[in-house]
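Thread amino acids onto this structure.
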């Protein structure tokens, strides 16, 4: 008796979902880079990511022939299909699919597939596919460079610990640009043909000037206004270095806490360099040294 096609599909789908051998093979290939197959998959994935980003960037340029645009569009669909399949397979073979889906890589993997589908509705949103650049972080896993991420984690911790100081400084900057913008409006607002037509425009000018960007779309016309703008420029050079100093000081402090304290030689009491095997002063073995 011939099986019902719906029943046959359900049984095949059930066997696929509960095929532990297949899931283990996929897990080793997709999630682990220690094996030759896993490393080859990750390297191929990185190349696909780079090529897909280049396709999106080049396709957005004007003057591209229509035939080339069609080729780029097809490539976008191919890469998106590949990344979508890869994301679904990661969910399928992951021991904890929910944990992977809400992890950093899981969110990035999902976002790298959505823009093209959203582009069918919202058009230019598909250029957000450049979010795939974040997936290049996987290169650290492939080439065993995770040790470099320790410094990145240390920098992130320094930024978090410095956030309150930076917020105080940011509030000070807001007060400064509002005050300087209002003062410039008082000085320049009464002049004929002045670009300082209102306080918001003057505050915008103060922000651009204090950050030393200097678009040049708004400029004072009076002598006192130019003198005031010169003061704001000089203040900008000195003030903008403050957040960098705050984060740098916190980074140095945190880095100093990570460095283990110097050991002292048990024989002569001299300080020992980190990871030293012998005392540079008396030659005794480090194993005989006390911290």
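Threaded sequence (291 positions):
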């Amino acid at each position: 008796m011939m099986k019902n096609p719906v029943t046959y599909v359900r049984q095949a789908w059930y066997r696929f979902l509960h095929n532990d051998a297949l899931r283990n093979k996929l897990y080793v290939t997709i999630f682990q880079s220690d094996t030759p197959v896993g490393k080859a998959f990750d390297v191929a994935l990185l190349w696909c990511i780079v090529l897909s980003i280049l396709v999106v960037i080049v396709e957005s340029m004007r003057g591209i022939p229509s035939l080339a645009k069609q080729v780029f569009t097809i490539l976008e669909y191919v890469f998106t299909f590949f990344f979508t399949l890869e994301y679904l397979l990661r969910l399928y073979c992951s021991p904890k699919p929910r944990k992977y889906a809400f992890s950093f890589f899981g969110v990035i993997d999902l976002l790298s597939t959505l823009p093209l589908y959203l582009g069918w509705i919202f058009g230019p949103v598909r250029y957000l596919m450049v979010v795939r650049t974040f997936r290049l972080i996987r290169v650290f896993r492939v080439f065993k460079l995770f040790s470099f991420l320790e410094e990145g984690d240390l920098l992130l911790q320094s930024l978090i610990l410095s956030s309150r100081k930076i917020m105080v400084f940011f509030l000070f900057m807001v007060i400064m640009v509002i005050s300087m913008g209002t003062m410039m409006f008082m000085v320049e607002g009464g002049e004929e043909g002045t670009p300082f037509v209102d306080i918001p425009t003057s505050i915008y000018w103060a922000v651009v000037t204090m950050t030393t960007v200097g678009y040049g779309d708004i400029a004072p016309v009076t002598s006192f206004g130019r003198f005031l703008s010169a003061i704001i420029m000089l203040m900008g050079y000195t003030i903008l270095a403050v957040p960098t100093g705050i984060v740098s000081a916190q980074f140095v402090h945190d880095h100093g806490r990570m460095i283990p304290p110097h050991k002292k030689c048990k024989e002569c009491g001299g300080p020992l360099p980190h990871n030293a095997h012998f005392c540079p002063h008396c030659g005794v073995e480090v194993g005989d040294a006390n911290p």
